[in-house]
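Example 9 (inverse folding). The structure is encoded as follows.
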């Protein structure tokens, strides 16, 4: 007998939401009921056949409360703010993992996090809440990825790297082993990080260096 799928809502209606929908459908655990978004001009739009019903008010007014919500917002700050609002309003945050993903032994994944196609997280890595591990990115053993981080497509974190909350690791970037990336850091696309990065700094290039203030 087939088990009924959990009915969930996607918060966010953008290009990123399209990828999230694909992950959810391929995982086959959840049934997407609808999408909501703070941009009320999107009300009535459809994404792969799923309707955008409105924003926060419409989500709260749903007659049948969903089993959970997943936040499909690329911006780290906006994603974590929406996730906190959902928690405050007693919605469960769900996580989703594309079936092509490779998770090593002892990997822990927090609530609201999502792994896109062909991503890898190796043994004893800890993934926080509301993290995006994007397409074909690689996180090696014993890494700690704190809440609200986005690891962009093709990025590589070597072993025992720690990434602070809400930091962004750009597409194709590489972080050498045993380094600490602070909170709210931006690592530019293709950068090679070979030393620790302090909170709030943007680094670019190979080897990665802090950008000069404008």
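The amino acid assigned to each position is listed next.
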């Amino acid at each position: 007998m087939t088990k009924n799928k959990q009915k969930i809502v996607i918060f966010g209606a953008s290009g990123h939401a399209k990828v999230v929908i694909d992950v959810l459908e391929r995982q086959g655990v959840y049934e997407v009921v609808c999408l909501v978004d703070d941009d009320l001009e999107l009300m009535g739009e459809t994404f792969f056949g799923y309707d955008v019903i409105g924003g926060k008010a419409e989500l709260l007014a749903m007659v049948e409360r969903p089993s959970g919500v997943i936040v499909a917002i690329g911006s780290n700050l906006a994603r974590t703010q929406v996730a906190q609002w959902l928690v405050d309003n007693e919605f469960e945050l769900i996580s989703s993992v594309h079936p092509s993903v490779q998770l090593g032994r002892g990997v822990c994944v927090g609530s609201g996090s999502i792994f896109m196609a062909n991503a890898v997280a190796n043994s004893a890595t800890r993934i926080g809440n509301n993290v995006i591990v994007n397409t074909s990115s690689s996180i090696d053993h014993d890494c700690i990825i704190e809440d609200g981080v986005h690891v962009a497509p093709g990025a590589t974190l070597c072993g025992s790297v720690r990434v602070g909350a809400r930091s962004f690791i750009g597409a194709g970037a590489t972080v050498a082993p045993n380094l600490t990336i602070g909170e709210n850091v931006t690592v530019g696309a293709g950068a090679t990080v070979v030393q620790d990065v302090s909170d709030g700094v943007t680094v670019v290039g190979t080897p990665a260096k802090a950008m000069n203030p404008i």
